[in-house]
């Protein structure tokens, strides 16, 4: 099998496994951190480069599209040049690209270097997961996924606060330079401790399959990322991207089902746990990243928290995740993973229900406690999900499977953010129309406010002030409606847990 690791005898020791785990976790944290840390610095880049908001948005879009297109290549490239070699090249490339982003002198240079970051960073997370699954024996896979999950989940959570702090007290360039020490340590650990895999010289590159999948993923990511700003199907660009994505996906599926050596081996989709895990991961990405995208504008735009405080208020969510992941690592192998997933999903639903009761005078502790609860639910769900997804998958498909797993989760995240942002805008308009209907001379509450000099509907300034308050209240209500919708999505996830097969007990 091309992807089965050939381990030297001394790599079976606990110390070597721990060092391998730390090395790949550094690579995971570096890549996961970069998915959110640059968001905070965008306004500062815009001012420094003299660019518009639409132009600076390409700093994020270029990275997302490049990573999405390059990620499916992970399995093929690892089989041709070796997983260890690909891993070390990716870490070096990502670190150098980060340094170039920090040193860029124009927006065009940043976008170009972010493309490189996305290409090299695409394989870091799936390779990390694949290496850990092969390094640790099957009986320890739950604990290994718990350690790996810390980097995947905590990185995006800490990104906004770390990015805000670096930007505020140093420079936006440091959100990229921060990757250099992580990259150096990760590369040193990988080349020293990770064993190489066997090569598959007979494997041929399916150019047609890769081309179709690249067109589909690239068009879909552009459609999702630019749809809201272009008013969706009112824009010809969005219509073209939607048609390209749909047609390319259809042709790609037809190709892998009928081709002799397709880009993705359709045999991988015969594993039931893997298929259910992909679907579950897609839904999880939809819920979790949408929540992370909605909270900062709510806290900063409507509750008037400074950027630094927003980051600090969201950081405890990571501590909740770390606590639950360490708990899962201890009970892995002793408790049915399906029960842990169910408890985690219910806890996430509870936190989203709590968020539907936020108001403008809510205390910082209420925000922090809700985040901790949600973090606990995320940790209880993510680690058992990763373990169950790959529990029955053949080792030969692990590298390819982990890349698909990460790709599907990322696509789910993009779709979730787009859907929830669009729903937020639509509900804000509907709420504004409903609330505005109460602004009339016959409203007793308004009459009372006018008598006390609070509002005045007989002047232009008074009407503008009332409209501003109506807009604020309508937008606030729309955020709560978004949280409620995500809570219902959590309940939809629960029946999927029943589709997982319980893996048979395994020993090293």
Structure overview:
The protein has 508 residues and is mostly helical. It has three domains: 1-205, Growth Hormone, Chain: A (Up-down Bundle), CATH 1.20.1250; 207-262; 268-508, Growth Hormone, Chain: A (Up-down Bundle). The protein contains 20 helices and no strands. The chain has helices at 14-49, 53-56, 58-70, 74-81, 83-103, 107-121, 124-135, 141-169, 174-177, 179-193, 207-226, 236-258, 272-302, 307-314, 316-331, 337-355, 364-389, 398-436, 444-451, 460-497. Helix 18 (398-436) runs antiparallel to helix 20. The model is unreliable at 1-11 (pLDDT under 50).
What's the gist of this structure?
The chain is mainly α and 508 residues long. It is 76% helix and 0% strand.
Write the layout of secondary structure elements.
Layout: H1 14-49, H2 53-56, H3 58-70, H4 74-81, H5 83-103, H6 107-121, H7 124-135, H8 141-169, H9 174-177, H10 179-193, H11 207-226, H12 236-258, H13 272-302, H14 307-314, H15 316-331, H16 337-355, H17 364-389, H18 398-436, H19 444-451, H20 460-497
Helix pairs in contact: 1-7, 1-8, 1-10, 3-6, 3-11, 4-5, 4-18, 5-6, 5-7, 5-10, 7-8, 7-18, 8-14, 8-15, 8-17, 11-12, 13-14, 13-17, 13-18, 13-20, 15-17, 16-17, 16-20, 18-20
